[in-house]
Specification:
With 377 residues, the protein is α+β, with helices and mostly antiparallel strands. Helix content is 31%, strand content 24%.
Length: 377
């Protein structure tokens, strides 16, 4: 069996559900099984391995191929080990069928883990040190599917690199830009009253209906008037609403939660101020606040950077690309590491019940990354 396929099968069989979904995952949660496996196979390949503690019981795994002399440059490949929840046991039973590898995490992003690890081993050629002055690091990260604690820990710990290649399913297209993601809550307050005399109260749900209408109407239309060349327009979605206690009480409180996808150049604070100002101008009494509290900043990396050009050349790609989802690349870029997104598979397969990645994608991913890594100075 092809080594990268065999490696991916092993990874799929090791459950690594993000603990944020522990209510539905139970003993399947945590990235430690995948981390232990990568430490073992990395050591057997003659590579330097270490744990990077993130939170109690959760660690990134760093596997290094260092140059014989002084390290002057560093390239890091950064896929994540965690997955979304497992709905049925069969998702942990890897299957190879019809040129595809099926199983939870096959696409998002154990396929990237396998591809990047196999490329690193190919460049190492059985262990030892590489020529030149560039250190190559595989940083398998925890917690991408929730709070990005793994990549945030690298940044907070002062980890530096000249380029980060963040593993996500991009169909092996080098992505230099993606949107950020801001989660907001908005709350309206009213006055409770008996529903037989609604005029004695003030309906917080009715007030919130005005808020939703403004956000999904005038505000969304305004966003569509500004477009990024790779990402298109920013978007807004009111995805949750809660209010009232029972039908015969005028509700005195209503809350919505909002997903606002941001473009490069926008800040969370600026977006929040803009929404507040628009709603105030419409005479709506509402409290707007950042709900998640973790900055999910947009990514925009200059495609003319030599290392980015080198990866695009290895991939046979002439123009940069953008995606609408957020990734660890935004965190690493915000921490001063020029970052791109690259990996096998299609984002349309991520998080699906029958998740899969193509074998040819895995093989080509290894070839592209190997060409790029072997050309490093």
């Amino acid at each position: 069996m092809n080594p990268v396929v065999r490696l991916l099968r092993d990874l799929i069989a090791l459950p690594s559900v993000n603990p944020a979904f522990a209510a539905g995952a139970g003993s399947l949660s945590g990235e430690h099984r995948v981390g232990d496996y990568l430490l073992a196979v990395g050591a057997r390949a003659g590579l330097s391995v270490e744990r990077w503690p993130v939170t109690e019981g959760r660690s990134n795994v760093l596997i290094r191929l260092s140059p014989a002399g002084r390290v002057r440059h560093r390239v890091v490949m950064a896929p994540h080990m965690d997955t979304v929840t497992v709905e049925e046991p069969e998702q942990l039973e890897p299957r190879v069928k019809g040129g595809r590898v099926h199983g939870r995490g096959a696409c998002d992003t154990k396929g990237s883990v396998a591809t990047m690890f196999q490329a690193l081993v190919t460049v190492a050629r059985g262990g030892g040190r590489r020529p030149g002055s560039t250190e190559i690091v595989l940083a398998a990260l925890v917690d991408e599917e929730s709070g990005q604690a793994g990549s945030r820990s690298l940044v907070a710990g002062g980890f530096k690199a000249d380029l980060a290649i963040v593993g996500e399913p991009t169909l092996l297209t080098v992505v230099t830009a993606h949107k950020g993601d801001l989660w907001l809550s908005a709350e309206t307050r009213g006055r409770a009253a008996h529903s037989s005399c609604p005029e004695r109260g003030r309906n917080a749900i009715a007030e919130m209906a005005r808020v939703v209408s403004i956000l999904e109407g005038e505000y969304a239309a305004g966003l569509r008037r500004r477009r990024h060349p790779l990402l298109g327009a920013a978007t807004v979605n009111v995805g949750m609403i809660a209010g009232g206690r029972q039908p015969n009480i005028v509700p005195d409180r209503c809350e919505i939660r909002i997903d606002r996808r941001t473009l490069p150049g926008e800040t969370d604070a600026g977006v929040t101020r803009g929404i507040r100002a628009l709603l105030r101008s419409k005479g709506v009494s509402v409290r707007v606040a950042d709900w998640k509290g973790l900055p999910a900043v947009p990514l925009e990396t200059d495609p003319r950077l030599p290392l980015v050009r080198g990866l695009m050349t290895a991939a046979g790609q002439r123009r940069p690309a953008g995606v609408h989802y957020f990734s660890d690349a935004g965190v690493l870029s915000g921490g001063g590491i020029p970052s791109v997104v690259f990996g096998p598979g299609d984002i349309a397969q991520a998080h699906t019940r029958d998740e899969w990645v193509g074998v040819r994608q895995l093989e080509r991913g290894v070839a592209v990354l190997t060409r790029f890594l072997e050309a490093l100075p």
